[in-house]
Amino acid sequence: AQSVTQLGSHVSVSEGALVLLRCNYSSSVPPYLFWYVQYPNQGLQLLLKYTTGATLVKGINGFEAEFKKSETSFHLTKPSAHMSDAAEYFCAVSRGTSYGKLTFGQGTILTVHP
Amino acid sequence: DAGVIQSPRHEVTEMGQEVTLRCKPISGHDYLFWYRQTMMRGLELLIYFNNNVPIDDSGMPEDRFSAKMPNASFSTLKIQPSEPRDSAVYFCASSLVTREQYFGPGTRLTVT
Fold first, then answer.
1. What are phi and psi of A62, to 5 degrees?
2. What is the pLDDT of residue B100?
3. What's the pLDDT score for residue A96?
4. B43 and A49 in contact by Cβ < 8 A?
């Protein structure tokens, strides 16, 4: 069975600083990996995904993530935080190479200080 | 496209009452998912459908919960009878078999 661990339920950064949100997964087969963002009182919105091919994937709003199979990690980064990035971020893993059932991490709340 | 539509957006009900949450997936999508989000348990998958057929309902907490998808454009999640511990935000999401899931805005349920 697959699982996801997000390290740090809360991350706080200053505006303009690097954003790093950590995600480690376990899966018995190569998975698809996703990052979603949730703004207050809204549904989840896809930031980026890894399926096959290039291990560094770019998403919306300047975010990117790198799939590292040896480390079973899929950390999310953004070089320079903006106030509008404040939200909750969820890492998710599929069951095998499919878009079907996903397992989500517990989420990381990102706070951006002026 | 209008995206995934959920109704109502907010629901307040008394313990013991029946609650019905509704979802309209994105047209053409063949998967539909129901999730529940709480502070304590995070985001949990309750059930999902493929081509209107329930595939996995292992996340449904108990018999008080039921879900149906009578056609490709409509699904319901029913709780009968409701209890205070059912208070949560319920999300519906839809997808194509080869694409990522798109989430609706959610229904915030409060059971008093």
1. 80, 5
2. 86
3. 67
4. no
Q: Which of B45, B48, B103 sits opposite A44 (nearest CB)?
A: B103
| Pick from B42, B101, B104: CB nearest A102 | B101
Is B61's pLDDT higher than 70? Answer: yes
Instruction: Give residues with Cβ within 8 angstroms of A18, minimum separation 6.
Output: A77, A78, A79, A80, A81
Distance from A43 to chain B by nearest Cα, in Å? 4
For A25-34, A70-79, A103-112, which range has the lowest pLDDT when averaged over its residues? A25-34
Q: Per residue in B34-55, pLDDT tens?
A: 999 998 888 999 999 999 999 9
Contacts with A36 from chain B: Cβ below 8 Å: 103
Going by C-alpha positions, the residue among B34, B111, B40, B32 that lies closest to residue B66 is B34
Task: Note whether A43 contacts B98, CB cutoff 8 Å.
Answer: no
Q: Compute the count of residue pairs across chains A and B with CB atoms less than 8 Å apart.
A: 47
Mean pLDDT on A77-83: 97
- Which residue do the tokens 């706070």 mark? A111
Pick from B97, B99, B103: CB nearest A43: B103
Beta carbons of B87 and B30 less than 8 angstroms apart: no
| Alpha-carbon gap: A9 to the closest alpha carbon of chain B (Å) | 11
Give the model confidence (pLDDT) of B72-96 as tens digits: 999 999 999 999 999 999 999 999 8
Q: Are B94 and B6 in contact (CB under 8 A)?
A: no
Asked if B56's CB is within 8 angstroms of A44's CB, the reply is: no
Give the tokens for residue B93: 């999401």
